[in-house]
Specification:
Chain lengths: ~325, ~450
Amino acid sequence: MAKKVSVDGGGDTSHLYESKTIRSSAPSRKKAAGRLKSSTEIPKDAIPEIHVPSFIESFFGGPVVAKQKFLPADRMVSSLQIGAASSLTILCFLTLAITPVSGTAWFAVSNILGLGSLGGLFHLSLIVIGLIGGIYGTFQRDKRAMLVSYVTLILVTIRFAGSTVEFRFDFLPEGEIAQKFILILYAVFLVMYIELSSGVIRFSMLDTSIRMNEVYVMGVKKITRKYHTSLAIAPVIAGIVALMTLLINLIIPAIVDIFDGSSDVASERLRESVELTSVYGVALGTAIVFLIIAIMFGVNLPLRIQQMRERGA
Amino acid sequence: MAWSRKSAMFASLAVALYLLGLVLRNQQLVTVAVVLLSFLTWAAFMSNHADVSSSGRRIEDEKRIDGVQLNSIVALRKISSSRIFEDGEIEVTLRLQNKSNLAKIVEVRDRVPEVMRVKKGANYVLMELGPQRETTIKYTIETPLRGFYTIGPVCIRIQDAFGLFHNEREVNLYDDFLVFPKMEDIKDALIKSRVPKIFTGAVNIRNPGEGSNFYNLREYIPGDPMKKVNWSATARSGGKMMVNEYERDAVSDIILIIDSRSVSETGPVSRNSLVYSTRAAASLAQYFLSRRDSVGLVVYSDEIVSVDRDTGKKQLYVLLTKLSGAIAKGNTPLKVVTNRIMPHINRGSPIIILSPLEDDSTIVDAVRDLRARNFDVTVLSPSSLEFEFDAKRLDRTGYEVLKTERDILMSELRGLGAFVMDWEPDMMLNTALAGARGF
């Protein structure tokens, strides 16, 4: 294709290009070089960004809390957020109710300083931080705030108790079983809060991946239903196992009672044993219960149940 | 059964609280620890239930039912093509069968090569697979870079609802495919042999002979066929009979030399000298073979791989396969390559060298030797400086210094009579070739 070319100040040179193909010339390197400045400074964008891991990151092999961006929460995530916030609220109330300030480190320090109320204030503020941090972390899906919430809510329970169960409020029941039931309720809510809040992050990641077409999910309802079912079953199971562990001071005498039916002396002594009613009794209970569980795993019971279900289905 | 980070955190927290509870005689802490441990135990119990045993077979082998059927989950894969060009697409069909009588919630990830991009569908699927059911997953991957690739294995994972523990199996199901370098249509390579070969072909070689292109006029010699007489020229010459002479058409031996040393991969993965060289070689091979030339290939890296000259479509696929497998490694000097191949090439044959012309002090000597033996040498040099500069890995001063050195080397090569072109990243191959040949 002929192309007319005119030169400023010169004559018409189009005849030179008649019936010749004029190709577009390659980008001129000389021209590019001419545009370059003579400065020897290395451009900022030429230096690659290097993330130097901190001591903690090096220790854990990566960031403790990874920053992630999520798409707006879908229905599943929203319901989990509400669930986490609800369980957190109940948990904070239970924490406040069953965790007196006496026996804590800040209580001792404030007493030494002669400011008795300061310990109580600090204790309360820890619970409030746990509540606010948890709600903020859950709704903003900020793992750092969640971590702060977990730490404060666990920190507030760390106190010397002398093997006695003490509650902050007087209106709470004083019976042994009722007390232990409340303790288990508290523990279950703590675990549920941790699980639900981490579930918010997990399902947000999944939802973001689905919407970004990184993962395809077939049968979303069945998968979420399984999670909901597990959320209902797991705390009950964990609660029952914990109840068995805590009530070992009643279970062991009852068993002894069966084998030693002629007299109630042995079982009565066991029932009144200080060791069994103390925290060491709970330790014994834990050892027994988890020994049974270990034997179940040892004989590969889960797989055998699986095979039985497969055959039966 | 593998532990997740979350389960490890739960377990360590439980142990810490348990021990702390015993020390502080705090039943509250012990209770929390016991509940945490119970929670973990239940999850472990449930994830052990979901034991996966799986194996894989290709769809083609499906009819054979003598395979080991221990599996509860079977994966079968089919790919739309095992040979494709760069920027092509491969459709992958993955069929999953649940041979168990129980429904399973499984995560399936079909591993695709890192450089590939999933364009349509997903290779990572989370699904509930019913008892004795099967499902099909389809996805399309883009193939941006040449090479030999493998899809697989298929990773199947079952985890408990809380994501605390998981069981994972890799189904050893692999499908190989080959990505050829993409080719550019070349109108005219402007490269012709100076030496006639015995067999005539479609390319004129600037020597008189039996051909189709006009060469010159000469006086009639007895024996010339009458159809060659140019009557107009005869009339103008005042009685002398003039005949037309034609350029001899003949096939040429074209040798493509690809620099595949480590240095040729300088620059980004998709924009470097080796990528450009292989694409150019593929385009040139296609062009020369289409005009019935014999094309040979030499790829040098830590070793010298050569494909003997031949013609035809089969040769094109042989060359494309070698180009697909070119990996940047080693540092064999060009002189070693030319010394080895020179005795086997016809003098005067065109030789096209595709090299970044870096990190090799023997380049000038090698080209001098080739020129001394009357080879028609064309050097297309994809500039790694430009790739590095574009990727902002090279500062301006360094760029200018290295560019000056490169220009000096190119001038030296031009001085030896080689056709040299500094091939910049945005330049079409046609343009680069035209530039090399001085058009």
